[in-house]
Amino acid sequence: MDLLTVKDLSFTYPKTEHKTLDGISLRIRRGGFYLLCGYTGCGKTTLLRLLKPELAPFGALAGEIAYGEEFGAPPAPHEIGMVTQDPNEQIVTDKVWHELAFGLENMGLPQAEIRIRTGETAGYFGLTDKFNSPTAALSGGEKQLLSLAAAVITNPKLLLLDEPTSQLDPITAMTFLETLARINRDFGITVILAEHRLEEVFSMADTVLAMDGGRLIACDTPKAVCAALQDSRLFPGFPTAARLWKALGAKGEAPVNVREGKALMREACGEKTLLFAPPEKEKTDAPAVLAAKGLWFRFAKDGADVLKNLSITLRQGEVFSILGANGVGKTTLLQVLAGLRRPYHGKIKLNGRELSAYKRGALYKNGLALLPQDPKTVFLKDTVRADLADILITQGCKKEDAEKKAAEAAARMGVTDLLDRNPFDLSGGERQKCAMTKLLLTEPAVLLLDEPTKGLDAFSKRQFVSLLRTLSAEGRAVLAVTHDIEFAAAVSDTAAMLFDGELLAAGTPHAFFRGNTFYTTAAARMARAHVPGAISVEEIAEAIAKAIAKAQ
């Protein structure tokens, strides 16, 4: 039975000519788990918001959304739950128990029923020990889990999620997705999940909805969508196992998870262990541009130390990635290195000078630039074009020259069509790309990036990797804090983990990822028994091709 039906749905935002959604038609059956994937800006968020009437954006709408008999007419707010990218934007109360009770209170339920439902929901989601905690004290993963619990407690018929794992570390993200799958299985709540991180979730879904340019281009089982779209520009974002399947000739059904990928490896390699030599990186004697030694930092005088005797050296042209769990201090480290927070012990030098020696904003003029975790804080104007021009004008550029340079920078980042949009109306990925464009206009020697690939699709990530490599070749240094393991493996010269206030195991991507169990690529997990040391699909396929050629 269909829960809802979408018929020829089109939508256009104000002051734009192109359709964000163009003729979308689909049927959502009751109890299904739907994965919605597609390029940054393809219309995923817009579609989700239109499905929840009170969140529908303003613009020109055509077509029809018909809700089934299970809903009221129109659906009541509690019948459709929504979980967004950023839990800080969604949480509205000060305590965990109150956040859980908030939706029930709005429904007018009696206090006795609210009490029992908040108690059992806290137990189901593992929030019992946090029940009386301030919401501000929760980690990012706990906040997102609370947002999910608050959406589920009202017993919705439909649950919409817009890239809910974008700010979560790999382990926390997996826990969140497993909880979501359990909700779908245990309670039969229909789930529509928009995601760019497809590695774990692809095989969880019953149906994959693939979008491109505002259109729905596929609606089928995960394996069938892999086969149908193996030559599309969406395919590089599909699970590693499916991409390896294509690289090895695309025979039989496409594998969509690591377990099936390992079976494919056994079929291709038998019991052999193939030789693989990681590419050797030339040793560099490039000068240090940013060096920190013996950093100690805590938020309160009597609080716990977040950074403990931490030292790091970033060299000219180096791309350095830092991984680690939510809440270990990665963002704090970037803020300390950027001079926004002051360590109580230790020194930081930029080009041999201590940060304190840079006066009146000189530190940020061709020196440091920080991309914050929340890119909305970067924007000050009503349009992206005005914002880009403004940063140039404040640096002394003439207005006409500023507009030209802004247009050139936008073209370089592929955001020209967003120049006249309000930055706060953009999708998360679009806003991220525009914020990065603004950052680069300051021509920094050192880029400090906090979750730079958040909200970006696979194609945009590849473009971003290429951009960072270009910047590296120009001599700029990049320090990126990221949960995106595949991105870190592709772009880094050096990778390390932040844990308990210290940087651990800093080394080349191959040295770092091949030895890890959880913080490693899906390709490395699949290849361990047959192509040890390989960390990408390309490396596995190359090793197998060489073995086949040698055997012939």
Could you list some keywords that capture this structure?
552 residues, alpha/beta, Rossmann fold, six-stranded mixed sheet
What does this structure look like?
Strand 10 and strand 11 (305-315) form a beta hairpin. This protein is of the alpha/beta class and 552 residues long. Among the domains are: 2-234, Rossmann fold (3-Layer(aba) Sandwich), CATH 3.40.50.300; 288-367 and 442-513, P-loop containing nucleotide triphosphate hydrolases (Rossmann fold). It is 35% helix and 22% strand. The chain is built from 18 helices and 19 strands. Strands 5-6-7-3-8-9 form a 6-stranded mixed beta sheet, with helices on both faces. A 6-stranded mixed beta sheet has the order 15-16-17-12-18-19, sandwiched between helices.
Task: Furnish the topology, listing elements before pairings.
Layout: E1 2-12, E2 21-29, E3 33-38, H1 44-51, E4 60-67, E5 80-83, H2 87-90, H3 96-106, H4 111-124, H5 140-152, E6 158-162, H6 170-187, E7 190-194, E8 207-212, E9 215-220, H7 222-228, H8 240-247, H9 258-269, E10 288-298, E11 305-315, E12 319-323, H10 330-337, E13 345-350, E14 353-354, E15 368-371, H11 384-394, H12 399-413, H13 428-440, E16 446-450, H14 458-473, E17 477-481, H15 485-491, E18 494-499, E19 502-507, H16 509-513, H17 522-527, H18 537-551
